[in-house]
Amino acid sequence: MEFRKTALTCALATLFALGGTAAAQDWGGQQGGGAQDASPPEHQGAMPGADVDLSDDTIDEFVDAFVEVQKVNDEFAQRLENAADAEQAQALHQEAQQEMVEAVEATGMNVEEYNEVAMALQNDPELLDQVVQMAEERQ
């Protein structure tokens, strides 16, 4: 498994989608909007990456979470390719998303924090390079 910026970008995009799903599960009932607006109330309209903790500890947790999410992504990629129909593919996708949430949470982060760090990394190419290097070392 080789981590490159393009792979990181794809994985980040995957988790953003996952974050929306997780947010819909977490906040959908509170907002009454469900999947229509999956962002948590306190971050609606917030600038992506604003006021995000990018301390060494946070980055370290993020890299651990990213590596675990990538493992889940890799595990399910082949299974999704071999899905018999759209219904099976959707079920596998939902299972993968749940495992990604669990992988992130097992590192001590929640999906919202993970996504905030990921968005902040897109605005900091030097830190993104550092994260990619750290992820490669932990694979």
TrEMBL record:
Descriptive protein name: DUF4168 domain-containing protein
Region (Disordered): 26-54
Keywords associated with the record: Coiled coil, Signal
Boundaries of every DUF4168 domain copy: 55-131
Chaperone among keywords: no
Keyword Transmembrane tagged: no
InterPro entries: DUF4168
First and last residue of the signal peptide: 1-24
Taxonomy, superkingdom: Bacteria
Coiled-coil region list: 77-106
Taxonomic lineage: Bacteria, Pseudomonadati, Pseudomonadota, Gammaproteobacteria, Chromatiales
